[in-house]
Amino acid sequence: PALTPPPGMDVRRKSVEKLAALQAEDDGAPLQCDCCGLAGAKLLCAECREASYCDAVCKRTHAYQHKQQCRQAVHGRLVREGKMAEVESVLRKDLAESRK
């Protein structure tokens, strides 16, 4: 079945497509929420598209814990894709935040 965003939720199209692909890889088994562990996650992290969440509350709750892993995933993806200017931008942002 095609995945559609729940009413009122702002879900990026790529996230929905990635979620569908991940569920297909797991023989259609629902993904688990990275925050609460419940099956049936409907949202993916908009940055890395690797962390899955059942709702926006879980996504916000897990944001602090997920931040470092997310940055590493985004950095790795950009390096693999050869987008060095974007890698530099991510590194500058990390450096600025670490100085706060």
Structure description:
The chain is mainly alpha-helical. It has 3 helices and 2 strands, in the order αββαα. Helix 2 (56-80) crosses helix 3 (84-98). It starts with 12 loop residues before the first helix and ends with a helix. The model has no long low-confidence stretch (mean pLDDT 77).
Q: Mean pLDDT, rounded to whole units? A: 77
Q: Helix count?
A: 3
Instruction: Quote the distance from N terminus to C terminus.
Output: 46 Å
Using the alpha-carbon principal axes, give the shape: flat
- Percent in strands: under 5%
Cα-based radius of gyration, to the nearest Å: 15 Å
Category by helix and strand content: mainly alpha
The topology string of helices and strands comes to HEEHH
Give, in spatial order, the strands making up the sheet with the most strands: 1-2
What is the total tally of β strands? 2
Helix content: 40-55%
Largest sheet: 2 strands, antiparallel
